[in-house]
């Protein structure tokens, strides 16, 4: 009470966010993963909650505290993340900020550690993980009205992101340059480009990840309202 609608533009809305990496076990002590601290995804979940939304955050393994006022579901693998995301629907807005491992070992990890035997590693066939964002963006029934993806790129960022938005069927892509010069990985700042489905691009200055999160939440709240 006493809150102005402008302070809580997502009041009554349900928001789903994925964050962090996924780990794809090779054996009990080894895994395949993408780099991700989870900082940007967790900041988005926190900002959406602060904007009044009921937020579910599906997070891979991260060394971050749970954002206040957010329902957190912790998972390890991409397949677990997809399952948790499906279980968290329906949502008005879904933001896929996780750095999902693209591949996993074809062979399910056993309970025994693989030992080095001096002959070099055995070949390890990989299979592609499900694309969580594309799966949800292309749901025939129950698709969230606003589906936002991220694109981590090291070169021709906007070009790659435009291709990604078409391939995945989402409404908006937040693209960032994760090349070494960008210093985004694990860092506090992010320089992002917002790419719409019609190809229009909005580039934001280098900002703290919390500020990127606040602006993104305000932006999607505006899209949903409009
Ligand atoms: N994503 C996902 N599930 C996957 C892979 C990616 O949900 N298995 C989502 C990410 O959360 C992000 C978007 O798709 O929102 C783009 O991820 P990115 O790694 O940049 O793109 P990929 O499609 O995996 O292509 P590549 O890594 O080859 O650039
Ligand atoms: Ca990827």
TrEMBL record:
Its cofactor is Mg(2+); FMN. Residues 10-221 form the DNA/pantothenate metabolism flavoprotein C-terminal domain. Its EC number is 4.1.1.36, 6.3.2.5. Binds 1 FMN per subunit. Pathway: Cofactor biosynthesis; coenzyme A biosynthesis; CoA from (R)-pantothenate: step 2/5; Cofactor biosynthesis; coenzyme A biosynthesis; CoA from (R)-pantothenate: step 3/5. CTP binds at residues 102, 113, 130-133, 150, 164, 168. It catalyses: N-[(R)-4-phosphopantothenoyl]-L-cysteine + H(+) = (R)-4'-phosphopantetheine + CO2; (R)-4'-phosphopantothenate + L-cysteine + CTP = N-[(R)-4-phosphopantothenoyl]-L-cysteine + CMP + diphosphate + H(+). It comes from the Bacteria. One of its GO terms (molecular function) is phosphopantothenate--cysteine ligase activity. The keyword Ribosomal protein does not apply. Residues 15-226 are annotated as: Phosphopantothenate--cysteine ligase. The keyword Metal-binding applies. Keywords: Decarboxylase, Flavoprotein, FMN, Ligase, Lyase, Magnesium, Metal-binding, Multifunctional enzyme. Catalyzes two sequential steps in the biosynthesis of coenzyme A. In the first step cysteine is conjugated to 4'-phosphopantothenate to form 4-phosphopantothenoylcysteine. In the second step the latter compound is decarboxylated to form 4'-phosphopantotheine. In the N-terminal section; belongs to the HFCD (homo-oligomeric flavin containing Cys decarboxylase) superfamily. This is Coenzyme A biosynthesis bifunctional protein CoaBC. The lineage of its organism: Bacteria, Pseudomonadati, Pseudomonadota, Alphaproteobacteria, Hyphomicrobiales. The chain holds residues 182 to 407 of 407 of the full protein.
């Amino acid at each position: 009470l006493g809150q102005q609608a402008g302070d809580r533009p997502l009041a009554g809305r349900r928001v789903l966010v994925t964050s962090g990496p996924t780990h794809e076990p090779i054996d009990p002590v080894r895994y395949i993963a993408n780099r991700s601290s989870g900082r940007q995804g967790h900041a988005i979940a926190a900002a959406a909650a602060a904007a009044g939304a009921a937020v579910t955050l599906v997070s891979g393994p991260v060394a971050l505290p749970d954002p206040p006022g957010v329902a957190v579901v912790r998972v390890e693998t991409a397949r677990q993340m997809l399952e948790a995301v499906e279980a968290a629907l329906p949502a008005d807005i879904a933001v896929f900020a996780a750095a999902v491992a693209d591949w996993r070992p074809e062979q399910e990890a056993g309970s025994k550690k693989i030992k080095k035997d001096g002959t070099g590693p055995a070949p390890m066939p990989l299979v592609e993980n499900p694309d969580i964002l594309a799966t949800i963006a292309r749901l025939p029934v129950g698709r969230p009205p606003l589906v936002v993806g991220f694109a981590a790129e090291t070169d021709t960022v906007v070009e790659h992101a435009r291709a990604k938005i078409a391939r995945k069927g989402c409404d908006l892509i937040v693209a960032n340059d994760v090349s070494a010069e960008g210093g985004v990985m694990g860092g506090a700042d992010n320089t992002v480009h917002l790419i719409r489905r019609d190809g229009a691009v909005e580039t934001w200055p280098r900002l703290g990840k919390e500020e990127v999160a606040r602006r993104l939440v305000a932006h999607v709240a505006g899209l949903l309202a409009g």
